Amino acid sequence: MKNKDIVQLYNFLNSEKVGKIKGYSKFQFVAVRNIKLLQDEIDSINSILKEYNKEIGECYKKYSIKDEEGSPKVINDNIKVDPEKEKEFRAEIKSINEKYKEAIDTYESVLEEEYKGELKTITIDDIEGIELDTKDFYIIDLIIKE
């Protein structure tokens, strides 16, 4: 299991979708335990791109279409870039990517490393009846023991 797998698992276990699952206390308990186990590792991985993500966010705010209150307009969980500013936006994104190339490479390398920790597990019987997508089962397969 690679670090990119645990990042995906952590994000899923922290999602609103998992938060809304009711009546499966063993699954919920294992989810919470794994979130706690992974927190420091995830924070460490995410810290690699902290400054990069900050600059990217500022770039999106700068070139976004604004709503009535002057905040970036979000459509389908994405900030909408003003088409009239698209060229400048792309140039600035390219510049930020070049500036943080070493950090991006390090991040991608860390994601490919093997995760050395152990996760709390559940059995397939513990999740019988939970309504999840195929993609979700692929993710939680990391914590299912047979």
Q: Concise description?
A:
This protein is mostly helical.
Average pLDDT taken over every residue: 91
Distance between the termini: 17 Å
Which radius of gyration do the C-alpha atoms yield?
A: 19 Å
Helix content: 55-70%
Q: Indicate the multimeric state.
A: single chain
Question: Helix tally?
Answer: 7
Taking the sheet with the most strands, its summary is: 2 strands, antiparallel
Shape: globular
| Number of separate strands | 4
Order of helices and strands: HHHHEEHHEHE
Low-confidence stretches: none
What features would you describe in this structure?
This protein has helices spanning 3-13, 16-19, 25-47, 50-63, 86-99, 101-112, 134-140; strands spanning 74-75, 78-79, 122-123, 144-145. With 146 residues, the chain is mainly alpha-helical. The protein has two domains: 1-47 and 114-146; 50-99, no CATH class. β1 (74-75) and β2 form a beta hairpin. It starts with a helix and ends with a strand.
Summary keywords:
4 strands; two-stranded parallel ribbon; 146 residues; globular; mainly alpha
List the helices and strands and how they pair.
Blueprint: H1 3-13, H2 16-19, H3 25-47, H4 50-63, E1 74-75, E2 78-79, H5 86-99, H6 101-112, E3 122-123, H7 134-140, E4 144-145
Parallel strand pairs: 3-4
Antiparallel strand pairs: 1-2
